[in-house]
Amino acid sequence: MEDAPFNPRTGARQWTPDGAKRVVGQRVDRPVTVDEKVQAVADLTRDDEVAAQVATDLLKRPTVTEHVAPAERVRVVTELTRDDTVAQEVTTSLLRRPAVARTAMRDDTTRMLVKRAQFDNSNETSERIRERTPAVRAIEHTIEYLDLVGSCHGFVTALGRLVPQMRGQEFTEDERETVRRQIGRVRAAADWLEGALYNGEFTLDEQLVQLLKGEE
Q1: For residue 80, what are the domain limits?
Q2: Side-chain half-sphere CA neighbours of 85 within 13 A
Q3: Count of CB atoms within 10 A of residue 204's CB?
Q4: Under DSSP, is residue 13 helix (H, G, I), strand (E, B) or coil?
Q5: Is 137 a member of any domain?
Q6: Lowest mean pLDDT among 21-30, 70-79, 91-100, 155-164
């Protein structure tokens, strides 16, 4: 009997069918240890429908989830939210929690993506309004036209006020060069505006973008 395996149920050494199976590395009929129970659960949940129901029930037990490592929780949540519809609902729910929202917004990438999403949603809403109400686009055109004319008028007015005040002043070569560069940017912007009005091309090419940013 000294060679008999230990029976965890009785606390004694004795030969049993499960004891023999443990010795030769086979699966037991009545699992006792954690590893044996885990293996038994794995066997019983090979069917996806059964596994889904068991997983749902287990995740409802707080004491179970407390023993799951944070990294594993993240992995599970990631897997469960691969569907965009589910991800949207979960994200909306999480961001309603102030502490979660504050922490999430500390991440630069997250903050940038949220701002981009807000911008895209705003544009989408505006486009729907324009489609349903053509008069809105006419109003926007008037506002943009007035802004454009006002910008040109403001620039000319500012020069008319500032340039005469500079009479008698001396400028260093660096100052003159800086002003010349700015004049080049103004001239390029004016040429772009004039061309856009006549040929309908309102997009910026890369070279012009760099020039207006002062990178050339």
Answers
A1: 68-106
A2: 0
A3: 13
A4: strand
A5: no
A6: 21-30
- Higher pLDDT pick, 171 / 27: 171
Q: What are phi and psi of 165, to 5 degrees?
A: -70, -15
Number of domains in the chain: 2
Which comes out higher in pLDDT, residue 4 or 117?
A: 117
Cα 211 from Cα 185, distance rounded (Å): 6
**Partners of 6 in beta bridges:** 13
Q: Helix, strand, or coil here: 7? A: strand
pLDDT digits (tens, 9 = 90+) for 151-170: 999 999 999 999 999 888 99
Q: How far apart are CA 150 and CA 173, in angstroms?
A: 32
The amino acid present at 213, given as its one-letter code, is K
Question: Is residue 214 scored above 70 in pLDDT?
Answer: no
Q: Is residue 199 part of a domain?
A: yes
* CB of 35 closer than 8 Å to CB of 28: no
143 within a domain of the structure (yes/no) = no
Last residue of a domain, one of 83, 106, 129: 106
pTM: 0.40
* Contact between 53 and 38 (Cβ < 8 Å): no
Contacts of 208 (CB under 8 A, 6+ apart): 188, 192
Q: Is 133 within the bounds of a domain?
A: no
Give 60's contacts (C-beta < 8 A, 6+ positions apart): none
More confident: 198 or 69: 198
